[in-house]
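Changelog note: in this version the structure field was regenerated for every chain. One regenerated record is shown below for reference.
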Amino acid sequence: MKSRHIALAVLITAIWGVNFSVIKIGLQSVDPFILAGIRFTLCAFPAVLFIRRPDVPWRWLAAYGLVFGLGLWGVVNLGVRVGLSAGIASLVLQASAFFTVFLGALVFRESLTGFQFAGAAVALVGLACIVFITDGSVTLAGLGLVLFGAAAWSAANVILKKAAPKDVLGFLVWSCVFSPIPLFALGLLADGTSGYTDLASQLGLKAIASILFQVYPNTLFAYWMWNWLLKEYPVSTVAPLSLLVPVFGICGSMALFGEQLSVLKSLSLLLMVLGLVVGLYGARISTAPFPFRRARA
């Protein structure tokens, strides 16, 4: 990769990692489903008035919008609200990589390797360590909700692959049209009208800044540029950089909320990242032409 494109990829992972802390800032005053609903409303409008609808069936746009908007970010917002720190949420959500691998095997009949099973086992141990963190940054309810969000993200990845849009930005923008109404309806169901009647007083400068960051740098810019990089370079070159997301997520939470990086959190981070490396890139690493192998041959 060109150095400027490496810098772009690192910038994207930093945006995605810090976004968890930015979400938490917004959640300090705004209902989690309403916050997500406003985010996806602004992702869709006014962009849909200027970007042509991609040439994919409506069902894929609707499915992606519902799963990505409601199943992923609506649920993750709720998970952070009920007691998961921004740093831990950014780490747990990386479990979506394994959900995607196993769901892809089921849907597309892709074969699984021993490295993928081994990587999943290592990551599962790292995930189990999170359960024993007792500093107040983890609740079982929050952990379960973010894991559900990780599963939803994997489903969204499969939908995206099935839809195979040529215009990824157009697909993202038009799919967001289907996210706000279910999110707003769920907010009404969960908390009644209070979240709406108090919204004007809740939307202070911090909440507005949180929403704008989630919409423009995090969703529209970062997802667009990441998919552009995947088109320009092999997936094996770009994808490993996503392992930086939980690193930036935890660093952002430490900087903005004073989250402490305990030994158990460090171990969880190490095992989750190691599991991802083994599961996603173990086969490639094992067959790489290392110098000592050439010398021995």
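Spot check on this record: Residues 205-232 form the longest helix (28 residues). Residues 3-296 form one domain.
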